[in-house]
Specification:
mainly beta, Immunoglobulin-like
């Protein structure tokens, strides 16, 4: 899910919108109690490289304050942007070691006025907690706007469990 803040590698974007405290989508539990939603969020800081067209989030670590048993690993990306729509694949396992605790609400901007992240979800119903798939989300932002933001992985209750920077 995405908010209006950027990581140390990125700046705040103009006109970022989003609902604070958004929980993500819920669904039926998989075999490890794991219907999870995925999305990106941003944190405070400087903007990433301008013009970079393909972004990837790897090296997921536990989200600040998360004390559960899930340990997320894998990749979200490559993320490409056409216009203001980001498309990405993901391959995750353990669907959690230190993230910022000030990630804001889901990121969307410009002509997008409704949170596009609430319908983005992944389902893992395997014993090892793996999930693979693809998604497309119109955030209203360009590739440069999204670069440096943080991908946040949520558990099936909507709690933030892991994060990694989109670079």
């Amino acid at each position: 899910m995405v908010d209006g803040k950027k990581s140390k590698k990125s700046k705040k974007s103009k006109g970022s919108k989003g609902s604070k405290g958004s929980k993500g989508s819920k669904g039926s539990k998989g075999s490890k109690g794991s219907m999870n939603s995925a999305g990106m969020m941003s944190m405070k800081g400087k903007k990433g490289k301008k013009g970079k067209q393909t972004l990837t989030a790897t090296g997921f670590v536990k989200y600040s304050g998360y004390q559960g048993f899930l340990e997320v690993s894998g990749t979200v990306g490559p993320m490409t942007t056409i216009g203001t729509t980001q498309s990405f694949g993901y391959q995750l396992a353990g669907v959690d070691n230190a993230c910022t605790s000030n990630a804001g609400a889901h990121y969307f901007t410009g002509s997008v006025t409704t949170d596009p992240w609430t319908s983005i979800a992944y389902n893992t119903n395997t014993i090892d907690g793996t999930s693979t798939g693809t998604e497309s989300v119109d955030t209203g932002g360009s590739s440069a706007d999204v670069s440096g933001r943080t991908m946040i992985i949520h558990n099936w209750l909507g709690g933030r469990i892991a994060c990694a920077i989109l670079e």
